[in-house]
Amino acid sequence: MPSLADTQRGFSAAVFASDPGSIRPWIRANGLSPERRLGLYRNNTFLGLSEALRDGFPVVHRLVGTEFFDALARSFVAEHPPRSGCLLDYGAEFPASIAGSELAASLPYLPDVARLEWAWHEAFHAAEAPAFGVAELAAVPPERHTQLSLRLRPSVRLLASPWPVLRIFHVNQPEYSGDPSIDLDRETGCRVLVLREGAEVLLHPLSAGEFACLERLSREGSLETAFEAAIRAEPGFDLPASLVRLMGLHVFNHPARFAGGALP
Amino acid sequence: MAVVLPAPCLQRAQGTIPASAGIGLRAEHYHEVAETRPTVGWFEAHSENYFGGGGTPLRVLESLRADYPVSLHGVGMSLGSVDPLDERHLTRLKALIMRIEPGLVSEHLSWGSYGGCFHNDLLPLPYTEEALDHFVGRLTRVQEFLGQRLLIENPSSYLEFAHSSLPEWEFLAEATRRSGAGILLDLNNLYVSCRNHRWDTHEYLRGLAGGPIEELHLAGHSQRPMEHGDLLIDTHDGPVCREVWALYVEALTAFGPKPTLIEWDARLPPLAELLVEARTADRHLEARSHALAG
Amino acid sequence: MTQNKTIVTSTLAAVVALGLAGNAGAAEKKADGDKCYGIVKSGKNDCKTLSNACAGHSMEDGQKDAFLVVPKGTCERIVGGSLEAPQGGK
To answer: For B37, which of A204, B150, C6, C18 is 20 to 30 Å away at the CA?
Structure first.
């Protein structure tokens, strides 16, 4: 008689590895073959996870159609079964899986569209946090500015792509009524800021300098390294004006942190 | 359509789930529920859909909690698995419990992961003494960690293990007796499994007599022709069928009026149609209460 | 004070001056990005069984025909570009 562990190992092998061998003798036929019974569970897992991916990546789905999407999803599920019992976590590696898939090689922008959708998903579920804007900065005494360190709000995600994925995303929304044509010879890449404002996930294009600045801050960089990176990335970059714009978009987290000291 | 919600409210409805009909909170209904505040006894939410740090789902749930009791129903704990308990999962559930203050918290008599890979499904256990000991141990540890009694729901299943030595109802009764947990009896699952495995529904209900039944679930299922007769599939995509309503009456007679959930997950109808099903359940509950009073 | 610190103090002073002078007003009032998309995202975790799960002989992998599948969607409206990444972006 198989132990509980043997039973679960055999069942999992039937579902994920199409190998019902070890568990089949321990399933009652009772009018329907063990293979058909296991097949139902296998189908439910693969179809259910594909459905979850369609939910999380609606633009990729729309771009390639259901049959092709399901082929991508199926190979992803086989290679990357969920590692958590919460489906909100499922799909983080899907963009990389698309990038590595020969199936999608003729659609080189598809992995970055998927990355943008995963960023959207993460922003949608991210924690709330109050914003640090110009008014909050004005309340900090100037002599403490050098001790200030700015961090991004939990919903902020950054994405740079050599493809016009922001436009691709935009023209593939159900409510978009214009011409969805995109000419890759005429449209260039983009840098995108993703963040949630209240209930809404917003997407904003970023300049090279803005992107470099936020990217440094997202990696816990100091203000000086972030500012220097911004100026290096974009000649003639208007740093103060861009920071005012970014603060207006509520990119930064409040309370801002200080090197060795309480908040003013 | 964007969901517009009032600011978070510190006042809350009392938390106890009443012995009346509730409905499942589904994302497709967020807007209508937030706007119309329908007349219904309580809401049940799938815990894992609120495991994010913030955003619309949690806002909707918190805002509803101001006006209704809420039950949290988990689908991903994999209680019967031989894998180690998923601490992150339990930590997220505990945080959600503290945030929402639910009247009931439930999970399934099932497993869902092996070797860290999750099936996204409620898989049947072999009903053996070994599995029973394992399940009781896990359930006890989870209840201690959460500081919360759980209700355990019977699953729908499509296969039986030859090495099972206990009927499902006996396993469920014994697991909850030994762990101090309660029973969430899903009458649709009971019907689906009994039909699929040729068990006797009356024997199942009799086997739970005197047990800690704290909540009932009702849902729709589908029937699929297979080589040797039909297989019932727990699709949650339609109204409760006549046979399950009959089982409901039988269960109310056996166990008394209990909080009753109308579950509907696929091919979701307009909210109004769900509320009609809930009113049908309420009429049965009232009839049973009157019979007890008289 | 080092050169590095100068960039911080001068920039933040300029941000405060610029922001409080009202230039921030427009940005503070309304973010100029794209509007919201699909706010009501469907929940994923549930406990149903899919109605089509019992169809077909599903112990097969289903992958052997994958290379015959071609994309059929709005990607047909994306034209031009070679397989090499264009300039710009990163």
So the answer is: B150
Determine, for residues A44 and C56 on separate chains, whether the beta-carbon distance falls below 8 Å.
no
Q: Which residue has the tokens 């139902």?
A: A40
Using the 3D structure, point to which of A56, A78, A107 is the last residue of a domain: A107
From the CA of B26, how many Å to the nearest CA of chain C?
7
Residues A98 and A115 in one domain: no
Contact A199 B56 (CB under 8 A): yes
Nearest to A80 by CA among A72, C71, A123: A72
Mean per-residue pLDDT pooled into runs of 10, chain A (264 residues): 98 95 96 94 96 96 96 96 97 98 94 98 95 95 93 97 97 92 94 94 97 97 96 96 96 83 51
A56 shares its domain with A181: no
C47 touches chain A (CB under 8 A): no
> Which residues of chain C register pLDDT less than 70?
1-4, 23-40, 42-43, 56-67, 82-90
Neighbors of chain A with 3 or more C-beta pairs under 8 Å: B, C
pLDDT mean across residues, chain A: 94
Identify residue A149 by its one-letter amino acid code: S
Give pLDDT, residue C38. Answer: 41
Q: Write down which residue in A107, A139, A167 finishes a domain.
A: A107
Residue B13's pLDDT band, with cuts at 50, 70 and 90, is: confident
Q: Are residues A86 and A154 in the same domain?
A: no
B137 touches chain A (CB under 8 A): no
Taking a C-beta distance cutoff of 8 angstroms, is the pair B150, B107 a contact?
A: yes
Residue of A nearest to C83 (CA): A108
What residue spans define the domains of chain B? Answer: 21-293
**In A, residues 125-144, which contact B (CB 8 Å cutoff)?**
125-128
Are A70 and A132 part of one and the same domain? Answer: no
A135 and A59 in one domain? no
Q: Determine whether the interchain pair A227/C33 forms a contact, defined as Cβ–Cβ distance below 8 Å.
A: no
Question: ipTM above 0.85?
Answer: yes
Separation between Cα atoms, residue A14 and residue A253, nearest integer Å: 48
The full DSSP string for A71-115 is HHHHHHHHHS--SSS-GGGTTTTHHHHHHT-GGGTT-TTHHHHHH
Q: Which residues of C touch B27 (CB under 8 A)?
A: 40-43
Half-sphere exposure of B136 (CA within 13 A, CB side): 17
Contact B216, B187 (CB under 8 A): yes
Instruction: Report, in this order, helix, strand and coil percent for chain B, each rounded to 5.
Output: 40, 20, 40
Indicate the residue of A40, A84, A124 with minimum beta-carbon distance to B89: A84
CA distance B219 to B230: 19
Residue A19's SS3 state is coil
Report pLDDT for B8: 53
Q: Which domain holds residue A43?
A: 1-107
CA B252 remoteness from chain centre: 17
A9 and A65 share a domain? yes
Q: How many domains, in total, are found in chain A?
A: 2
CATH superfamily, with its number, for domain B21-293: Divalent-metal-dependent TIM barrel enzymes (3.20.20.150)
Residues A231 and A167 grouped into a single domain: yes
Give A85: exposed, middle or buried? Use CB within 10 Å, 0-12, 13-18, 19+: buried
Least CA distance to A46: which residue of chain C?
A: C53
Residue C33: the pLDDT is 45
